[in-house]
Design goal:
The complex is a heterodimer of chains A (1014) and B (557). With 1014 residues, chain A is mainly alpha-helical. Chain A contains 58 helices and ten strands. The longest helix of chain A is centred in the first third of the chain and has 20 residues. Chain B has an eight-stranded antiparallel β-sheet with strand order 9-5-6-7-19-18-17-12, with helices on both faces. A five-stranded mixed β-sheet of chain B has the order 2-3-10-4-8, with no helix packed on it. In chain B, strands 23, 24, 25, 26 and 27 form a five-stranded antiparallel β-sheet that branches. The chains are: A mainly alpha (1014), B alpha+beta (557). At the A-B interface, α40, α49 and α55 of A face α1, α6 and β15 of B.
Chain lengths: 1014, 557
């Protein structure tokens, strides 16, 4: 009988089952066996769904027969008969696996301390099945010179088999070996703080971990330590330094049947990535190129957990599960449940992935290629092989890909496709016997796959609902899976057909996403509302649920069934107990909701609350809770005298605006006498960085003044300086201004004139505004001098400028009397004031008022419009005699426009005036030194100088020095004029030293010409 | 670098028709320094102090035109232009015309409504602009009172021009009281405005107010504290120019009209492309000739003869900075010019009799790497032991100013030690060389001594480059002509056994316009983060070779 086999689509390989030809019936028989064999492995004909065995075959040997065989083998080994199939260590191991108590004495006889593998198996087996007799052996090993994994295993075995006082003594001894810093954990009574955890578990990662196993063993009898230890295990990484401990703990947990701890490691290893491919690969470590194996052998290896190690642990977990299942062990479901509960949808549910492969198939008939896309799907959680094994070992839609160590989808199933629920799990038989585990999964699991599985098992076993206790129901109803909630609802309906469940279940019903459940909850309450009106637990839960719908319902309910004061107090107390816990997540809306319930429905209860409790809230670090405390304080209407000063201070400094308002309320309620005592506090509130405090302080100031009217002036002088320095907090100026002008207005009149003026001169607008106000009301403008008024008229505050201008317009005599100072108004910074001044002087001043110095001081301004006004006035009121003075003074102006104006006086006032010419020497040089500008003035000057030089020799001497200097100019126009002038001077006064060299040139033209060289 | 000042109130100038009182607020955190006198030479002082102000606020760096407004308008206009271009039918044109009219009506309305607001807004911004104008000033001028003179120093915003106005006591009459030292003064642009009102018919009091050092308490904000974060490059520039003064160079005397003529030509013409330099052509005994590039115009200075011994030609850049001297021309008797060399700092000293005004110009206006590298002005010249330096400093401090020889004989140390110590003081801002009177003067630039060594290099790459060029790790390979008359300099730099071949292209202004290298730094950053050390090293080496060729390095001690 020949056959062919191989991959679909690929070339098939040939084989033969029979050496010689056989009859057809014989051949068909052989074929049927072969096909059956293959189908069992999961193969299927084209178009068929692969059919799996519905049930993994029951073990071939069961019960006594199997156990006896193991015992027999052990006995044979004692007689030094070698087993043909199994090595001795494996037989010993198996005895432990099967928990064969009678094997214990036999194993003790088989111990060989030189064969570490056998020794390990012996310890493990004795650890599981041993009795008091084996303790000596274990103690010897634990204290002996063996590798740590053997010593630790012996310790674990000891902890398992010792009982009563001996165990206590053993644990005490273990503790004795721990360092002090870890040991002190056991002296703590109320929980183990995180800080200690860090200290204790910082030993992880150090490579040696001599404390990991003792701690684990100790934690098995200490609930607090167990919680802390499990928490620490959750976060430690799978990498060098940690992995040795993980490996030992994993195996010990397996030995001790500690499913919860075991599950922690299973998931941890499944989630971790192998850090290198294998121990034989080469790598640079510590500047040495060599196999990683060398490094692994070191005590403080920097390498650990290869990909191969990961695969090994995957295999081992599956084997452990399979063995437990095959041995019909009750531990199977326990282990499986613990493992399944480790996984959830949020952290572990990666998205389904797809692997596409394109096959190009050549069709020789058409000579074309056709393409075929093969999608290989991986569903969520599919890399967690133990989880899938437990859930889908018998599934037709998932299969294990050994090479990739991952579960893949079997076509045509794809992730997300609807699938008829069926029993796909491994060892369904065992699950049918484990209702507690199924209920545990239903109530605790956050993974939809797991709850779906549990639901299928649950629905398949009608009797399971008997195992649901009342305390499970709330968990079921609170589950995020609607299906589980529905199950819970069904059970509630069944169990509470005639009675009313307790508050927790009703709240759970209320919070369910199923409408029917919520209605059922309300129905329960309607049937006996009075009981719930005073059920503090129920109300607390609804309030803390922070669900709008529930709050609305509760509001309506409480409106018609007002609770007793004592109930209210209880509710408030319970709420506070919950929210005052450190790190409890609170927000504005939360506190708002809680406080509105308190004010609306539990108001009478507030009187029952102790003062200290409210004070505690006020001192709470969370500002929202401080706010709540403030609110309660206000509602409590506690007389302010009874509140300790410290509380008021703390409240005032609180970040919560409500708390601060409560403090201000307290202050407001103080009697006058006490208020006066707190005067300094109130004054400091006015300068507080917080706007709300500053504003509320104003009322207090008002009361303070009523109590002690004499202090008004003092307060004004206290606050006034604040306005003249830069404000330390935003809007402080504004608030102080308001305080002064509203509450302290009556005392503003005490501010003297000097202060008022300095307020006006301040650079801050609030001060200027106040200055303006004072000027309008209390400081008569008539008392101010012209220079003071001028300063005010140049204030940045428009209103102030307008006020002064109006005053000037009405008091022309004033400016006429002090006109020298008044004229400076025209040089104000503000343009509007300048224009006003121009008009004022233009219209009101006559020749009697004006004098030369005033004109000059106008012209001396650097502002163009003022200069122009000055020039206009000079032209208007010009008097001949003053020309010399104008020329002298204006010629010093640095502005070229003014210089040009001054040059206009040259002709009339500098002519034939040697003295004047001498004085103006600098002016001439300045004019002539202007580069590319001032042409007119230059020409005026040169003309004058030219003509004047020719007047007399004295003049010429003076003027030549100017021309000499200037004649080096490169400006041709100017230079021509200088040369001309110098030539003329030289001609007239040959003795004057002009830098001029006149050359006679060969005469070419008819007229005689000169060539000039400077 | 952080500079902290505390002034007792603002500097005040009170002006009336007949008198002016300038009361400067000194930094009260420094050693008390004060002065009280009445000004005698009004107008020259006015012009000089104004010129000093011009330096403080000057910024000659190239600033590209802001075209954003135009671009916004063009973007708005684009659709209209496009529509016009695309218009096909009469009907559409009419329709578009109507719409456009409607749109322009809306714009008109909008402008009518928003007009007052916009005017007010721009008015407000103008107000802010003028009231905050002091933001222009990087660092307040420094005033130093010495037994023989009083001087003001400042450094421009563009980190390239240094100004120093020294007034001997002849400038003042009735000097009441003074205490020597250096202080910063509170300075504002309003002060400049008040300076303009100085006239010789007004009595002008000049006071560095000692009352600032008295403790005052009051309600007003009497003390004004300012913290100025001055860029390191600014301080470096200041110290570089300071130490450049100590080095000396080719000296010429210019007639005021020569400076007038330089300004005249610069004002008349505007160069659109380089080179933008002035070439001083100096021949012993002959008038100075100044060549204006790129126009090729030669200015003869027949009244200024070069008295040096060797014929030389020196190029300086950043010539528009000379316009800062314009106001001084009428009041100056002569200008002493010290040219250190091509591309090196130059000094123009206006001699006004009792006053002198020094304008120091760095090699280029842009005080960046592209023009630097002639030689390291902040490099220590010679090691001197600390005790000797301390001794020299104390000795100088006793008299406040001294000639090198006199100082050397006073402390009885050899002249080179004294000179190198004095140079180190100049490099750290503790003393200056008065190039006019040729003496060293104590002048503490800041309250806390500046660490000149730290400022020596802008970054680690410049430092590395200096080491390359000092250790002869740089070789010049080829110098060829580049586009637009520039030069392409190729070289090789050996860095840790590896050889890189950087290349730089110099413009006709001898600034680096482009550069490249083979190193990783250049490959990653190009020039965006500044040049690599190899490019800078090549630049330095090329410059040094040039300078040696021209024999100017001999001038350096």
């Amino acid at each position: 009988m020949n056959f062919r086999y191989g991959r679909r689509g690929a070339a098939l390989k040939e084989g033969s089952k029979t050496v010689f030809p056989v009859s057809k019936t014989e051949a068909e028989k052989i074929f049927a066996v072969l096909e059956d064999e293959k189908r069992k492995k999961g193969y299927a004909a084209t178009g068929e769904n692969p059919a799996f065995q519905a049930e993994i075959a029951a073990p071939k040997t069961t019960g006594n027969k199997r156990d006896k065989a193991v015992i027999k083998d052990l006995k044979a080994a004692i007689n030094e008969e070698e087993n043909e199939t199994w090595p001795l260590s494996r037989i010993v191991w198996r005895a432990g696996e099967l928990n064969l108590k009678e094997a214990a004495p036999l194993v003790l006889k088989l111990i060989d301390k030189t064969d570490l593998l056998l020794l390990y198996s012996c310890i493990r087996t004795i650890g599981r099945i041993g009795d008091q007799k084996s303790t000596t052996f274990l103690q010897e090993i634990a204290a002996g010179n063996f590798p740590s994994y053997i010593r630790n295993l012996a310790l674990a075995a000891l902890s398992n088999i010792l009982e009563g006082k001996e165990q206590e003594a053993f644990l005490k001894e273990l503790r004795g070996k721990l360092p002090e810093s870890i040991n002190m954990v056991f002296t703590l009574e109320n929980g183990i703080p995180e800080v200690y955890l860090k200290d204790v578990f910082s030993r992880f990662g150090t490579g040696v971990n001599e404390f990991a196993v003792p701690l684990y063993l100790l934690s098995r009898s200490n609930e607090q330590l167990k919680t802390a230890f499990t928490k620490a295990l959750d976060v430690i990484p799978v990498k060098a330094g940690y992995f040795r401990a993980i490996r030992q703990l994993y195996k010990i947990a397996e030995m001790l049947d500690d499913a919860d701890t075991y599950a922690v490691f299973v998931k941890k290893i499944e989630k971790a990535q192998g850090t290198f491919s294998s121990a034989d690969s080469y790598e640079y470590i510590d500047k040495n190129w060599g196999p990683i194996r060398n490094e692994l052998q070191k005590e403080n290896s920097t390498k650990a957990f290869s990909k191969k190690t990961k695969q090994y642990f995957g295999r081992r977990t599956l084997r452990t599960l399979r063995k437990l299942g095959e041995d019909e062990s009750l531990s199977y479901t326990k282990f499986a449940t613990s493992i399944l509960l480790r996984y959830d949808d949020e952290g572990d549910g990666e998205k389904p992935a797809k692997e596409s492969k394109i096959n190009y198939n050549y069709n020789s008939a058409t000579r074309t290629y056709s393409t075929e896309v093969i999608n290989n799907w991986f569903d969520t959680h599919s890399s967690y092989i133990s989880m899938y094994y437990i859930l889908y070992a018998n599934s037709t839609r998932y299969r294990f890909n050994k090479a990739k160590q991952v579960w893949e989808c079997v076509a045509p199933y794809e992730p997300g496709k609807v699938f008829e629920p069926s029993r796909e799990e491994a060892f369904a038989r065992l699950w049918n016997k484990a209702p507690e585990d199924i209920v545990r999964l239903l109530t605790k699991s956050n993974c939809e796959r797991v709850t779906d599985f549990a639901l299928t098992v649950f629905r398949n076993n009608a009797s399971f609902s008997d195992y649901i206790q009342t305390h499970h129901l709330a968990d079921l109803l609170r589950n995020k899976s609607v299906k589980v909630q529905q199950l819970g609802l069904d059970v509630v309906k069944e169990k509470f057909a005639n009675t009313i469940p307790d508050a927790e279940i009703i709240v759970a019903l209320f919070m369910s996403t199923i409408k029917e459940a919520r209605e059922l909850g309300q129905q329960f309450i309607r049937s006996n509302p009075a009981a719930f009106a005073d059920d503090a637990v129920f109300q607390t839960m609804l309030i803390l649920s922070m669900d709008k719908e529930l709050h609305d319902w509760l509001e309506n309910f409480l409106k018609s069934h007002l609770p007793k004061a004592s109930t209210g107090a209880e509710v408030i107390q319970k709420i506070l107990d919950v929210i005052c816990v450190k790190d409890y997540k609170l927000d504005e809306a939360y506190i708002q909701a809680i406080s509105s319930f308190i004010t609306d429905f539990y108001n009478p209860a507030i009187g029952l609350l102790s003062n200290e409790m409210v004070f505690d809230l006020l001192l709470h670090p969370n500002i929202l809770i401080q706010g709540l405390g403030g609110k309660l304080l206000a509602l409590k209407k506690l007389p302010a005298e009874q509140v300790p000063e410290k509380i008021i201070f703390t409240l005032l400094q609180s970040e919560s605006i409500i708390a601060r308002a409560a403090a201000v309320d307290l202050l407001n309620n103080l009697g006058s006498a006490q208020l006066l005592e707190k005067k300094n506090l109130i004054l400091s509130l006015c300068l507080s960085p917080l706007a709300d405090l500053r504003q509320s302080a104003q009322k207090l100031i008002e009361r303070l003044l009523q109590a002690e009217p004499s202090s008004g002036a003092e307060l004004v002088h206290l606050f006034l300086p604040v306005l003249t320095v830069k404000e330390k907090h935003e809007e402080l100026h504004k608030d102080i201004f308001n305080l002064l002008t509203q509450k302290l207005e009556a005392f503003l009149q005490y501010i003297e004139k000097k202060k008022t003026l300095s307020l006006c001169a301040s650079r801050y607008s609030a001060a200027q505004e106040l200055g303006l106000l004072l000027l309008q009301k209390y400081v008569p403008l008539s008392g101010l001098s012209v220079s003071e008024l001028n300063t005010l008229a140049d204030s940045p505050l428009l209103k102030l400028r307008e006020l002064i201008r109006a005053h000037y317009t009405g008091n022309i005599a004033l400016i006429k009397n002090d006109r020298k100072n008044a004229i400076l108004l025209a040089d104000a910074t503000w343009e509007d004031t300048r224009r006003f001044a121009f008009d004022l002087f233009r219209n009101n001043f006559t020749a009697n008022e004006w004098d030369v110095n005033m004109f000059v001081s106008l012209c001396d301004s650097i502002k163009e419009d003022v200069q122009a006004f000055g020039r206009e006035m000079i032209s208007k009121w010009f008097e001949k005699d003053n020309g010399f003075e104008y020329l002298m003074k204006l010629s010093q102006h640095p502005d070229s426009r003014m210089q040009l104006f001054a040059s206009g006086f040259l002709d009339n006032y500098a002519k034939s005036n040697y003295e004047m010419l001498e004085k103006l020497g600098g002016f001439f040089v300045t004019l002539l030194s202007q580069i590319n500008k001032g042409h007119t003035a230059k020409v005026r000057a040169i003309n004058l100088l030219h003509t004047e030089a020719l007047e007399n020799e004295k003049n010429a001497l003076l003027i030549v020095s100017i021309f000499n200097r200037m004649s080096a100019s490169a400006a041709i126009t100017d230079k021509a004029l200088y040369i001309k002038a110098l030539t003329d001077i030289r001609k007239k006064y040959p003795s004057v030293d002009a830098v001029l060299h006149i050359k006679d040139t060969p005469v070419y033209q008819k007229e005689k010409a000169h060539a000039v060289q400077l | 670098m952080q500079f902290n000042y505390k002034f007792n109130g603002d500097t005040k100038v009170t002006n009336s028709g007949s008198s002016t009182e300038m009361s400067f607020s000194p930094d009260v955190m420094r050693d008390p320094t004060f002065f009280n006198g009445i000004l005698n030479k009004h107008l020259p002082f006015r012009e000089a102090i104004s010129a000093l102000h011009d330096i403080v606020v000057s910024d000659f760096r190239f600033k590209p035109k802001d075209k954003s407004d135009y671009k916004a308008w063009a973007a708005e206009q684009e659709s209209i232009w496009l529509a016009e271009f695309m218009k096909t039918s009469e009907e559409l044109t009419q329709k578009a015309g109507l719409l456009r009219k409607e749109l322009s009506d809306i714009y008109d309305q909008k402008n009518k409504i928003l007009g007052p607001f916009n005017t007010a807004k721009s008015k407000y911004f103008n107000y802010i602009y003028t009231s905050d104008r002091d933001m222009w000033i990087v660092l307040d001028p420094v005033i130093t009172v010495h037994p023989d003179e009083l001087f003001f120093e400042c450094f421009s915003k563009d980190e390239s021009s240094y100004g120093r106005l020294s007034c001997s006591y002849e400038v003042f009459t009735k000097i009441n009281d003074f205490k020597c030292g250096t202080t910063n003064i509170d300075y504002s642009s309003a002060l400049y405005d008040e300076f303009q009102k100085i006239r010789d018919y007004k009595e002008t009091k000049f006071v560095i107010d000692p009352s600032g050092f008295e403790v005052t308490t009051g309600e007003q904000e009497s003390f004004k504290e300012t913290k100025i974060d001055v860029p390191d490059s600014w301080v470096r520039g200041f110290l570089q120019v300071n130490s450049a003064m100590t080095l000396g160079g080719a000296e010429i005397e210019l007639h005021p009209m020569d400076v007038y003529n330089i300004c005249f030509h610069l004002k008349r013409k505007k160069e659109k492309e380089g080179p933008r330099s002035l070439r001083f052509i100096l021949k012993p005994g002959e008038p100075v000739k100044i060549l204006f590039e790129p126009w090729g115009f030669v200015l003869d200075c027949p009244r200024s003869l070069y008295k040096g011994s060797a014929e030389t030609e020196i190029r300086i850049w950043g010539r528009r900075r000379l316009l800062l001297l314009e106001r001084l021309i009428p009041v100056t008797k002569k200008f002493n010019v010290v040219l250190m060399g091509t591309g090196l700092p130059s000094f123009f000293i206006a001699d006004m009799g009792d006053m002198s005004f020094t304008l120091g110009l760095s090699g280029w206006t842009a005080n960046d790497w592209s023009g630097q590298g002639n030689f390291d002005l902040l490099a220590p010249r010679r090691e001197t032991d600390v005790m000797a330096m301390q001794k020299i400093y104390t000795a100088l401090r006793e008299t406040w100013f001294s000639k090198t020889d006199a100082l050397a004989s006073k402390v009885q140390l050899d002249k080179t030690t004294v000179m190198s110590s004095l140079l180190a003081f100049a490099q750290s801002g503790r003393a200056i060389y008065d190039i006019n009177k040729r003496v060293y003067r104590i002048r503490e630039l800041s309250r806390d001594p500046i660490d000149g060594k730290k400022l020596r290099f802008a970054n680690a790459r410049e430092e590395a480059a200096r080491i390359f060029s000092d250790t002869d790790a740089v070789k010049l390979n080829a110098i060829t002509e580049a586009d637009k008359g520039g030069l392409r300099v190729a070289g090789s730099v050996t860095d840790k056994g590896k050889t890189y071949k950087p290349e730089i292209v110099l413009s006709r202004d001898e600034t680096v316009v482009s550069a490249r290298c083979e190193c990783n730094y250049y490959m990653q950053n190009k020039l965006f983060k500044g040049p690599c050390e190899h490019i800078v090293a090549l630049n330095i080496t090329y410059r040094e070779k040039q300078t040696i060729k021209k024999g100017i390095l001999d001038l350096i001690i």
